[in-house]
Amino acid sequence: MAITPPSSIDPTRESLAPADLEAPIDSSAGQIAGKSRSMLRRGWEVFAENKLALVGLGLVLFMILFSFVGPLIYHTNQVNTNLTDYLCKPSGAHLLGCNDVGYDELGRLMLGGQASLEVGVAAALLATLIGTIYGAFSGFIGGVGDSIMMRIVDAGLSIPYLFVLIILSVIFHPDPLVMIVIIAVFYWLGVARLVRGETLTLRTREYVQAVKVVGGSRARAISRHVVPNAIGTIIVQATFAVADSILILAGLGFLGFGIQPPSTDWGTMLSNGTNYVQGGYWWLIYPPGICIILTVVAFNFIGDALRDAFETRLQRR
Amino acid sequence: MIGFLIRRFLQALVVTFIVTIVTFILLHLLPGGPIRALLGPRATPQQIAHYNVLYGYNRPLVVQYWKWIIQLLHGNLGYSVKLNETVAYGITQALPKTIVLIGLGTVVSLIFGIPLGIYQAVKRYTVGDYVLTGISFIGYATPTFFIGVLLIDWFAVSLHIFPTEAPQGNTVAQVLSQPLGLVLPVLTYAFLGYAGWSRYMRSSVMDNLVQDYVRTARAKGASERRVLWGHIFRNSLITIVTLLGLSLPALVGGAVIVEDVFNYPGMGLLFFNAAQNYDFQMLLGVTLIGTIATILGNLLADIGYAALDPRVRYN
Q1: Could you give the ipTM of this predicted complex?
Q2: Residues 40-79, chain A: which have Cβ within 8 Å of B?
Q3: CATH number of the structural domain B88-314
Q4: Would the CB atoms of A167 and B287 count as touching at under 8 Å?
Q5: B164 burial level (CB within 10 Å; 0-12, 13-18, 19+)
Q6: Tell me: the pLDDT tens digits for B212-267?
Q7: In chain B, whose CA is at the least distance from the CA of A304?
Q8: Domain locations in chain B as residue ranges
Q9: C-alpha torsion sign, points A305, A310, A312, A313
């Protein structure tokens, strides 16, 4: 879905089933280093066996190189408009033609890729961080506090989130930093719900109870024991969050609430290109569209494979 | 069951209350405030002050909220000065059309998603499965507006099969009287949901195929068709009801984009225009109604879940 629901409620991404949680990913906090390394290696083996995951990883690396290293090789002027190049066709001078104000389209793709990737990754990290802390805390304290904290999440998830995103983008001038915060403000809700669910099963474990017995603080139990044991779910969720954030940014770009010129992002470029859909200006439409699709698919592949890797034990059944 | 319903209803009320507060505060952060948006950039400070007093925007936020909520309880959603009509009128015009779009789109996506997902699970790891998986991955990764624009380009501009624009009109009947115009918006909308449903059905059926009850059914001599449709399909439906309820916020959000692409006069377009015009009262009203619809949908999904699944008993 272009504008996607939070992944926790997303039917395409079955998260770890409760039964799988019974056997924690790392057996406990007190495990020996050698064992931990072999777990990692086995996880990587499962990941690497998955051809799609490697394709996804390759695509992401390519997009990063393309967006961040590309401009060092392929020099274009992305600051000053040049109306003599208005909608020029792809040629030796402009490999992918020009857009409606004469910016070189290939160079613009690189610039837009920087924004899309930066916003996608940063928003996902921020949302995952907030959601993890909130969810772990809520699940850990339980009782009335948990109920109140979760009702707040429910309320947030009940507002059709594109409404909130649009209101927020109208209120704040949308530059990349603001977009990161805006997307994260919405996205953390789903993460919080997921992590809270994990915490509910983890907090009854002996090694978590033991922290209390020896006088450790709540924060210590959460940060040292609950979160590390839920890390598989959290990382998988974060990967999907990157894909979703890129799509959300694209959707906002279409509605005109994306990153403002002279900077740009893939969604804004694509949306701008769709104004010329009837003139045969394919280079304004398909390249940014394909960039978005490839990147989002790549992160989804990686997320799928990571989930399998974290469920290594399931593979050996 | 009655107790569960009452508790669930009270929860929904609390959630709605929180939502009204959040939306109210959010909208008061709009730059320049509602009066500046109304009078335009050349309004003098005196004029703005005058109208602020006139409309009560100079009062403390709590007082404004209180007045709004009291009006709301009397069924008064406010007045959109931009559109020169009541918010309630705008919403009653737009909401049924959005329901038509979301309803048709969801039904079409289920009609394709469920059987194809089952097919994929039965024929797993074959060429057909891989192709369909590829389609759903691409469907998942494509921005909605891109799908919409491509469909317009291919089927409306190049092939002249369908009109470029969604049906226009004030009433649902008028909209429904132009079925050709509805095809592309509904297809765009359905493609959005298809990826999710087919992926879900595939994994759900694959999980169910190894369950004990399936083995029992086979041992009793049930035909493969009966096992698939009489047992597995019916079990998966229960979860689909829940997922439908949970995906409502996303469905409503998707409507904003689809309605904008096809200029379909529903809630999404109403909201989008209101956001561009800083139409304070309309934004508040549409967000509130959209949220209440979502909460109601979730409530219905919960009840449906309990009604469908004999194992679920709420005490």
Answers
A1: 0.81
A2: none
A3: 1.10.3720.10
A4: yes
A5: middle
A6: 888 888 888 888 888 888 888 888 887 788 788 778 877 887 888 888 888 888 88
A7: B137
A8: 2-81, 88-314
A9: negative
